[in-house]
Write a structure and sequence with these properties.
Elements lengths: L1 E2 L5 H9 L5 E4 L16 E4 L3 H4 L17 H4 L2 H11 L11
Parallel strand pairs: 1-2, 2-3
Length: 98
């Protein structure tokens, strides 16, 4: 799961390079998303906020990895608060906020 996928380049590259894997990418600003144009059957694009995803309002599988980069440094305190419980959807979570 990629949180805040923006234009979707990383999610598309990972899904395209790993056709046997299942990839999910979420962004609350769909206007930025390029991934909708990708025709990758193993990439699911979600238009949800961290708040939507954290409490489980969206049915999602267990993830091996959840990534976010960049957004944590400029997101509001409220969005950062919701990002951590979203990351808790992984079996063993290591949440670095560097």
């Amino acid at each position: 799961m990629a949180l805040d996928f923006g234009r979707g380049l990383t999610a598309q590259l990972l899904a395209g390079a790993n056709p046997m894997g299942q990839f999910y990418a979420a962004d609350f600003n769909p206007a930025l998303a390029l991934a909708r144009e990708a025709q990758l059957p193993n990439l699911t694009r979600l238009e949800n906020s961290f708040e939507d995803l954290a409490p489980g309002q969206v049915t999602l599988p267990q993830f091996d990895f959840i990534t976010l980069h960049g957004i944590y440094s400029w997101a509001t305190a409220e969005n950062r608060r919701w990002a951590k419980p979203t990351a808790a959807r992984t079996p063993t979570t290591s949440c670095s906020t560097r």
